[in-house]
Amino acid sequence: MPYRDTAEYRRKAKDCLLRAKATNDMLLKMHLLELADTWKGLAERAERVGWMAGISAKTGKPSIVRS
Predict the structure, then answer these.
(1) CA distances from 8 to 27, 42, 43 (A)
(2) Which end of the chain is less crowded, N or C, counting CB atoms within 10 A of the terminal residue's CB?
(3) Calpha distance 2→26 (Å, rounded)
């Protein structure tokens, strides 16, 4: 997963959390919370991959300048 997608993954996690809060269906709530956790994990993984590659998670550009 590309590192530049971290913000999108976090938006999707937040959306799942909001939907889970809004529903009274306990099964749906459980699935939405699991999905939110998955999106959060993807964001964290993408940030680690970007960091290891010397890429800024905020800008998607190299954070290490080599001369």
Answers:
(1) 25, 10, 8
(2) C
(3) 33
3-state SS class at 52: helix
Burial call 48-65: b when 16+ CB within 10 Å, e when fewer = eebeeeebebeeeeeeee
pTM exceeds 0.90, yes or no: no
Alpha helices in 1-67 (DSSP H): 6-22, 26-52
User: In Å, what is the CA distance from 65 to each residue of 7, 45, 53?
Assistant: 23, 23, 12
DSSP category for residue 5: G
pLDDT in tens, 8-27: 999 999 999 999 999 999 99
